[in-house]
Amino acid sequence: MYALSRRRFLALSAFAASHAYAAPRSAEPRSLLSPFKLDRLVLGPSNEAGAYDSKSVDCPFVFRNGNLWHMTFVAFDGIGYQTGLASSEDLLRWKKVGCILRRDPNNPVLKYNVAMNWILRENDLTSQGRIQRVQGSYVGAYHAYPSQGYESGAAVIGLAHSKDGLAWTPGDIILRSEDGAAWERGGLYKPCLLREGDTFYLFYNAKDHTTGPWHEQTGVATSKDLKTWTRYEGNPILRNGPAGSYDAHFASDPCVLKNGREWAFFYFGLDDKGVARDLVASGPDLFHATKQEEPVVNVGAPGSVDGIYAHKPSVVMHNGDLYHFYCAVGGNRKNSVRGISVARSRPFSDAERALAMA
């Protein structure tokens, strides 16, 4: 069998504030819909030879720190993943700050890849997602693939630490695929790190095989100290749907937030036709969720900025509006462009669209 990258499989399948922002809490859950698209990239690849982000940008994580919005993103240069940071005043115009977590040729785990996908933040859907300190440091979660190339080999999950949100130091590996169940033996993907009460929750998606067609599903592990982790015995908590469903092949890239008394599990699904779109499920706790029938962000028309995929959610709220950032893949499948776009719960004005282009 030949090693099949995740991107190829998809194609073949057709962030200094130390205090917490007091987010308003509602007893009733808020709508999770964001049907109005900006219909353009807010962040794209640099296309500069040798740059860390030359080929694509992917996997947004949007948060608030100090007086600015920030976005971590995963950048690909043809060798492997590294982690970038961008900043914004208005969630529409984004400026790249630079690469904040680089691969390390002297580290056998991080030799080719280090993709930080999440920083511990406020849990509430109604918040701006301000990042939170643990014992004086910010804590991020990353995954790393062992080989050169696009998502090559079985990835592991580790934690990273920062004093200022700009300079990050990768720490110990906390989850490995070989220690898990059959559904995750092929490798681990995007981590989503939460703290609720005295417990940390790490959500992640994983694949069952490293070669050939595979399935991805989402599970969770818990810890009291960020060091010792226990996988939930009921994993995966977001399973593949039946043939013909939106998530028949993938139920991936979790973004888990508190929604009133409920929890919202944003994720993306891959269907039988190779179409990836953002979905959501809701549940009374962090272990059980019922899927919503319709997508929260769907793919666009052929040739549009997200005509191929609209997936990998990151959600924040500003001025009462829900902003849903996602990886948009457009163009044609042989020469696609992979970048970051956004949808919102309120329509974008012509002035806002023009601002995003400035």
From TrEMBL:
Give the keywords, sorted: Glycosidase, Hydrolase, Signal
Q: Does the keyword Ion transport apply?
A: no
Q: Name one Pfam family in it.
A: Glyco_hydro_43
What is the superkingdom listed in this entry's lineage? Bacteria
Look up the signal peptide feature and give its range.
Answer: 1-22
Q: Which InterPro entries match?
A: Glyco_hydro_43, Glyco_hydro_beta-prop_sf
Q: Name one GO molecular function term.
A: hydrolase activity, hydrolyzing O-glycosyl compounds
GO BP terms in the entry: carbohydrate metabolic process
Per the UniProt record, the site (Important for catalytic activity, responsible for pKa modulation of the active site Glu and correct orientation of both the proton donor and substrate) maps to D253
Say which family it is in: Belongs to the glycosyl hydrolase 43 family.
Protein's name in the database: Glycosyl hydrolases family 43
Organism equals Terriglobus roseus
